[in-house]
Every structure is written in structure tokens, then in C-alpha cells.
Specification:
The complex is a heterodimer.
Chain A (H helix, E strand, L loop, with lengths): L40 E3 L6 E3 L7 E7 L6 H16 L6 E7 L7 H9 L5 E4 L4 H10 L4 E5 L5 E6 L2 E4 L5 E5 L4 H14 L4
Helix pairs in contact in A: 1-4
Chain B lengths: L7 E7 L9 E12 L7 E10 L3 E8 L4 E11 L4 E6 L3 E3 L4 E4 L4 E8 L8 E8 L4 E9 L4
Parallel strand pairs in B: 2-11
Antiparallel strand pairs in B: 1-2, 2-3, 3-8, 3-9, 4-7, 4-10, 5-6, 5-9, 10-11
Classes of the chains: A alpha/beta, B mainly beta.
């Protein structure tokens, strides 16, 4: 058990329903008081150097929590994201995909790196063996993760499936719920990148 | 999520029980696909749309050991707070004339212990066991999802 499951607080929901005005709204969720995560860091799964949870100047970091033996949710989000990055063309060079394993006991750094290379050129496999450090990061994202072993000996993993778009000041600009698809990723990445001074 | 309408399996299942009037049940599987995956992935997933002309249920699934050590029926659920969880299900109901979706983020066939990574362009066969006693052999093309 990594940490108890935590109910998330209420979210301010923005929708992309066609509006009468010209300002595009994100597909994902935007908080009145956005999450600030830029002061946190996690070890790179290979180099073990601390990686701050904020984008490079003028760029966007997309952060997901997951685990490699996740057959459905994680690869769905990552393939949707890959499709969106392809559509972005050169703009994708301003996007880094950060993947935080919630199952560090089973996910080796080497396997994480190979896994992420399959989905995105610019990626950061993040892995800590310190449950306290992972819990701190999860708390900052109002996210949850739980790894447990059932009576049948099977490992059960639950985790927040939201994708977090983080800007270069470490603010979570948009939170994309699972199932937003390539369109959702592309739309909100363009929106957040468009708001950056590059 | 746009599904490629690539595979249609339509199986005519004659009522096997004695005394039946000979009325036929048709189970149609449409849009079957499995996601290609990286070397490091030991798990895979297959998806499809299943429609039965009479009440039935999927009660089991299997694949050849050359594909994966084991296959199970699973369901992903996404809670209101965005938490994803997944568990095995023993039965996926197929109400008459309703199309039941096995799709990302919902019901799916979980392939456990892949013998080799699933590569786009490959095809595997998934055997679905139905409550009516019949078995469906479903060709499942492997493709890259996301477009």
C-alpha cells in the first residue's frame, strides 16, 4: 500500500462546447487556483538525477502516473498522446512526456525508458523507491495511487488516470481526464503552447 | 477514438439444445483490434464490438499460448475523481440486439504474459466462450491505436 486513496476536491470544469466568443477553452479541467508542482522533483529512472516537475522555458510537460503492466489505461493515454504529438509536427519539440511509475517495485528504469521511447521521443521516465516522496508528489497533484496484493496473490494497481499539462513555471495549466483522446491532447497542447512566449 | 472497421465476424449459432425450434442466434463481432506494444510490455489488450441476436454472455476467453500465457475478461472503471482501477470479470452480458463495447477504459480482453510484443500488422485469434455454450474464434488484427 503506497498511500490511502484520497478523494479529490471538486474541480472547476471547463468544456469545449462551441461558444459565441472567439476565445478557445481547454477540453480539460482548469482550476481557479491551479496546482503548483514546480518546486517538486523526482529521480530520473535511469540517471537518478532529480527532475523538477516543470517544463523547460517556453515548453510544456505532460505528466502521467501509471505502471508498465497496465494493459488498458496507460497505453491508451500514451497512444492518444503520441497521435497528438505527431499532429503537432515541429511544435511537439516543445512537449516533454513525463511518466511517473506508481509501481516502482516492478518497473525497472531500463524497462520504463524502453516503454516510453515507444510513445514519445522527448520523455522522462520518473521513478522513486521512496514511498514518502511519491506520496508527496501524488498529494501535490491531488492524485491517488494504490498497489495492493489480493488474496489470490495478484497485484492490483489503482492510479489517477488524468494527464497533467505543466507549464514552465510549474503550474498545472490543464488537467485532461482519461479518454480525452488525440483530439483533446492536441487541442489543449496547442492552447497551452500558444500561450507561451517561445 | 476512431475504430477501424476492419474485422467482421458473424457467426451463426444454431440452437444446440434438443427440442429447440431451430431458431438461429447470430453473434456478430465487429471492429476487433489489439494494440501494438513495446518490448517491455508484458500485458496487452484486445477490443471489439459484440452483438448477439438473443440474450447471451461472454463467460470466458482464451488465446493460443504462442500469443500470451493467459487471457482474461477485464473491466476498467474510471471514478469521478479520475482514479482508474481494473478488475477481472467473470461475465460480460450480451443483451439481445445490443452492441456491447469492449473498448479502452471499459471491458477488454486482457492478454497476460505476452510471448512476444504485439506488432502492428500481426493478427491473433481470441476465443470467446459464450454462456450459450458456443465458442467464437475471433480474428483480431494488431494495430497502432490513436488515429
Amino acid at each position: 500500500m503506497l498511500r490511502p486513496l484520497l478523494a479529490s476536491t471538486a474541480l472547476i470544469v471547463s468544456t469545449a462546447v462551441a461558444c459565441a466568443h472567439d476565445t478557445p477553452l481547454p477540453v480539460g479541467l482548469v482550476r481557479d487556483d491551479p496546482l503548483r508542482v514546480g518546486e517538486l522533483s523526482l529521480p530520473h529512472a535511469i540517471t537518478e538525477r532529480d527532475v523538477p516537475l516543470r517544463a523547460e522555458a517556453g515548453q510544456v510537460m505532460i505528466l502521467l502516473f501509471g505502471y508498465l503492466s497496465c494493459p488498458d489505461v496507460c497505453p491508451t493515454s500514451l497512444t492518444d498522446l503520441r497521435a497528438a504529438l505527431r499532429r503537432l509536427g515541429p511544435l511537439a519539440d516543445s512537449v516533454t512526456v513525463a511518466f511517473v511509475t506508481v509501481d516502482p517495485d516492478r518497473d525497472s528504469g531500463t524497462a520504463m525508458a524502453e516503454y516510453l521511447d515507444f510513445f514519445a521521443d522527448r520523455n522522462l521516465p520518473l521513478r522513486t523507491e521512496d514511498p514518502g516522496q511519491l506520496a508527496t508528489v501524488l498529494d501535490a497533484f491531488l492524485a491517488t495511487a494504490d498497489v495492493s496484493v489480493g488474496d489470490d496473490g495478484r497485484v492490483q494497481v489503482e492510479h489517477t488516470a488524468t494527464a497533467f499539462l505543466i507549464d514552465d513555471s510549474g503550474i498545472v495549466a490543464v488537467e485532461l481526464p482519461f479518454g480525452s483522446g488525440p483530439d483533446g491532447f492536441e487541442h489543449d497542447l496547442r492552447l497551452v503552447l500558444g500561450g507561451r512566449k517561445t | 477514438m476512431n475504430l477501424v472497421r476492419s474485422t467482421i465476424v458473424s457467426v451463426l449459432l444454431l440452437a444446440a439444445c434438443s427440442g429447440a425450434t431451430g431458431e438461429a442466434t447470430t453473434v456478430t463481432v465487429d471492429d476487433a483490434w489489439a494494440r501494438n506494444n513495446p518490448m517491455s510490455a508484458e500485458m496487452g489488450a484486445a477490443y471489439m464490438l459484440v452483438t448477439s441476436s438473443s440474450d447471451d454472455a461472454i463467460v470466458g476467453v482464451s488465446v493460443d499460448p504462442s500469443v500470451a500465457a493467459m487471457a482474461e475478461l477485464h473491466e476498467t472503471t474510471i471514478a469521478a475523481d479520475g482514479t482508474a482501477s481494473m478488475g477481472m470479470v467473470m461475465r460480460i452480458p450480451l443483451p439481445a440486439d445490443e452492441t456491447v463495447e469492449l473498448r479502452p477504459g471499459g471491458y477488454h480482453v486482457m492478454l497476460m504474459g505476452l510471448a512476444a510484443p504485439l506488432a502492428a500488422g500481426d493478427s491473433i485469434t481470441v476465443s470467446l466462450k459464450l454462456e450459450s455454450g458456443n465458442t467464437l474464434e475471433v480474428p483480431v488484427p494488431v494495430r497502432e491505436d490513436g488515429e
